[in-house]
Design brief:
single chain; 107 residues; alpha+beta; three-stranded antiparallel sheet; 3 helices; 3 strands; 15% strand; elongated
Length: 107
């Protein structure tokens, strides 16, 4: 697994007064730096080291979100009244319940 294929985010940490680099696939890891670029470089380096260690130990390596295959289906349990409200809204809009929910999730 190439550590550069993972999903990274850099944001400002007011508490630390530095930028923090994070990796979605390995949420327990972070890297602080005074610059956004440094935070990104640092978290990528940390992730690469962790992935190498996992590989060396024969442990499972998280798959990158960008390379995973998604079916496009998932189930959500909601209260019956909410289900009714959504079904009515879909009927009034002249679209399927699936389309209504998909459109609302896209917002």
């Amino acid at each position: 697994m190439n550590a550069r294929h993972y999903t990274y985010r850099v944001s400002w940490s007011e508490e630390d007064r530095e930028y923090v680099g994070l990796c979605a696939e390995l949420p327990g890891l972070s890297w602080l730096d005074g610059t956004q670029e440094g935070a990104l470089r640092g978290i990528v380096k940390v992730v690469a080291g962790v992935v190498a260690d996992l590989h060396a130990q024969g442990e499972a390596i998280p798959e990158a979100l960008g390379t995973r295959r998604y079916s496009g289906k998932f189930q959500v349990r909601i209260p019956p009244e909410r289900h009714r409200q959504l079904a009515v809204a879909a009927a009034e809009a002249g679209i399927s319940l699936n389309r209504l929910v998909s459109d609302r999730l896209a917002v």
